[in-house]
Amino acid sequence: MSTSTIPLAHGHEDWVLPYHGTVAMLALIVAEIAIFGIFVVAYIYYIGKSLTGPYPRQVLELPIFNTVCLLSSSFTIWIAERALKRGARGAFSLWWALTVALGAIFLVGTGLEWKKLIYHDGLTISTNLFGTTFYSLVGLHASHVIVGLTMLSIVLIFSLTGKLKSEHSRQLEVLSLYWHFVDGVWVVVFTVVYIIGR
Amino acid sequence: MADSTLPIGSAIDLTPPGEVHGTWLDQVQSWVVTVDHKKIGLMYIAYALVFLLVGGFEAMLLRIQLAVPHNNFLSPEVFNRIFTMHGTTMVFLMGMPLIIGFANYLVPLMIGARDMAFPRMNAFSFWMTALGGLMLYYSFIGGVGLQGAGSAPDVTWWAYAPLTERAFSRGHSTDYWALSLIVSGFGTIGAAVNIIATTVCMRCKGMTMFRMPLLPWLYLVVSGMILVTISPLTAAQIMLTIDRYLGGHFFDSQAGGAPVVWSHFFWIFGHPEVYVLVLPAFAIANEIIPVFSRKAIFGYPAMVAASAGIGLISLSVWAHHMFTVGMTSAQNAFFVLSTGLVGVPTGIKIFNWIATMWGGKIRFATPMLFCTAFVAQFLFAGLTGIMLSTAPWNWQLHNSYFVIAHFHYVLVGAIVFCFFGGFYYWFPKMTGKMLNERLGKWHFWLFLIGFHVCFDLMHIPGLLGMPRSIYTYEPGRGWDGWNMIVSIGGLIQAVATLIFVYNMVYSYFKGPDAGPDPWDAWTLEWATTSPPPEYNFASAPVVDSRRPLWDLKHPEDPDSRYE
User: Fold this and answer.
1) A27 → closest Cβ in B193, B205, B242
2) Does some domain include residue B449?
């Protein structure tokens, strides 16, 4: 019995714990899911409860192009990460820049949609329940896209100025985890707002 | 065998601490810019203690007003503000910072780490929390915003819609309430993320998850719960702010919004929040009871499983706050049963604490006194909880003083008692000085008597139909004498708390030196000096069991043989 503890003392060389950045990001994503969950529940609860128009069916159009752009950015960021791990920094910058561009297209698309809704259809956040819940939920998601884009752009600057090495790929994995989350949430928002709610 | 435990011995740094240099301004600066988990933890705790006194003072004002019928001590408007501030303060500015402060101080020490996983985010979280408290109390002077509108928030701490809408709560006081909870909520979420990353990724060599002491384990559960409970509150507060500032209609009944949605969102936060506050109290009892019973904790895996079980079940019980709102019978039945189910893991815990004490060589020092009282009082609190979670009983007694008595029994009888015990237990570690035992005994007995006089008897006016949140009442309803006695009980608790504050100040300057391990305890925080150096451990500890210091002190019979 007394020998049972001795191997332990030698067994600690391979004492490896998970990377704290990844764990923290997963925890943050859980918190974010809870926040989005509440806004989604509020949106679903208030579908069809607006007392006055305009109603979703009259004004909402499916943002297919936007959605394709945002979802494909999840794919490009994954390719970029793999490129960095290989040490192909040029390819990394290219795919990373494409990710930023796709995210930016999504934001511009949302901006144009809102412009049409506000100036053409007269739907603002205070018009009716649909306006309140729509701008809150889509706006919450868009604000996450803005945060993500800011961080992606900072990485792009580091990459273009040659400050990014393959040893940073662990940190970038954490960032891309966030970006995948932002994209994943859009699938839920899209389904709720543009398919169920219309 | 001795080899494997040796590194703990060398974890103690024997170099004498350097003289403290610099002016008092340098001292202040060193606290403001610090990223050291111990200093941040102490700041959290100090912040919580300040608000404990503020919130306690507010409670005294309320009890003076309610002591006799037709009292004019506080006007109705001021009474509403004070009880709103009392509730908000005690939950968000006292309770949350207190639990996070203890986590900050103890978790890295107990898992043999040198700091939290994200020291700077840790400081950020604290200062966000501090800003939240500042904003809430600034409303007293800055919250008017409109002639004749009240200064401090007066919407109760659960702030039911549509009272909080702009049409009914004029001025800025409600905005301060919502914004301060959003801001301090961000701080709390940051702290929870940090605690999770720390417990998962920063454990010292040999400390597998099931060798981790129960306190970090319970804080891991609590942090997971914070992620999914504070976030809904933040979301709901953002909605409220949208309603108030941008003219939204989330809770605006005149535009089709449903106030009941707020109730659901608030209690989805509000009920798990009780467990967020009480699990750290369990965590403290889990550390103190074994040490003062001179036995290892009974049923360690069951304790972990019960904590995780409480965490999961507590997410599905929120609507037992809303039986009187009017739900379908299926919903009523669901929430009655799910609430009853929480009693199972909590019951397991109570049995485990008793089994830990059973046959032990119990030392009734002040920390153990508080924890012993906690076990009994938490049982009573749980029993009235089961009563209230039964829908028909709840229909009779909802929003009565029976409810107030029940949840204060949990919040004071369980949480405050355990944290007082925690202070007596870890104050020597935090300051290097022992708290005075004689004053501690006075504190304990006075607080115990005050608590029972106040909150045992508070159930009775509740059963006699006294509603909560009223600023006064008519004589002759059978509530008069009871309220007077309850107020006297409150006063006794206030005196006991002041003894505690005096004890801390007195012992800090005059108390005997504690040494690294005054209680002959077993977890890693006692394997370094008191107070620990900034880096905690001179060399990283290696552990072989759940009680590394036991192994070190008893090399002939280490725990690692049996685990």
Assistant:
1) B193
2) yes
How distant is the Cα of A62 from the closest Cα of chain B, in angstroms? 24
What is the distance between the alpha carbons of residues B453 and B456, in angstroms, rounded to a whole number? 6
In a domain? residue B24:
no
Inter-chain residue contact B256 with A4, CB threshold 8 Å: no
Q: Give the Cα separation of B475 and B50 in Å (integer).
A: 36
The tens digit of pLDDT for each residue in B164-185 reads: 998 888 888 899 999 999 999 9
Give the count of domains, chain B: 1
Indicate if the pLDDT at residue A135 is higher than 80: yes
| pLDDT, position B71 | 94
If we measure between CA atoms, which residue out of B276, B198, B172 comes closest to residue B232? B276
Output the CA torsion A31→A35→A36→A40 (10° steps). 140
Q: Please state the CATH superfamily assignment of the domain spanning residues A17-196 in this structure.
A: Cytochrome c oxidase, subunit III, four-helix bundle (1.20.120.80)
Closest of B300, B250, B543 to residue A45, by C-alpha: B250
Q: What does each C-alpha distance from B560 to A3, B103, B229 come to in angstroms?
A: 11, 26, 38
Q: Are B302 and B358 spatial neighbours (Cβ–Cβ below 8 Å)?
A: no
Assigned token pair, B532: 């620990």
Domain boundaries, chain A: 17-196
Q: Chain A residue closest to B248 (CA)?
A: A126
Nearest to A31 among B117, B227, B248 (CB): B227
The answer to the question of residue B424 being in a domain is yes
Handedness of CA B202, B203, B208, B209 (dihedral sign): negative
* Closest CA in chain A for residue B207: A15
Cα-flanking dihedrals φ and ψ of residue B539, to 5°?
-130, 145
What pLDDT, on the 0 to 100 scale, is given for residue A17? Answer: 93
Helix %, strand %, coil % of chain A (to 5): 80, 0, 20
The reply to whether residue B249 touches residue A126, judged by beta carbons under 8 angstroms, is yes
Work out the angle at residue B126's Cα, subtended by the Cα atoms of residues B121 and B129, and round it to the nearest 5 degrees. Answer: 125
CATH number at residue B302: 1.20.210.10
Residue B44: domain span: 37-561
Residue A53: what pLDDT?
A: 84
Question: Is residue B194 helix, strand or coil?
Answer: helix
Alpha helices in B247-365 (DSSP H): 259-293, 300-313, 329-357
Residue B178 lies in a domain: yes
Residue of B nearest to A36 (CA): B235
Partner residue facing A35 (CB), from B201, B205, B234: B234
pLDDT tens digits, residue range B426-444?
A: 999 999 999 999 999 999 9
Which chain B residue shows the shortest CA-CA distance from A3? Answer: B1
A-B contacts at Cβ under 8 angstroms: 136
In the predicted model, is pLDDT for residue A8 greater than 50? no
DSSP bridge partners of A86:
none
Whether B446 contacts B496, CB under 8 Å: yes
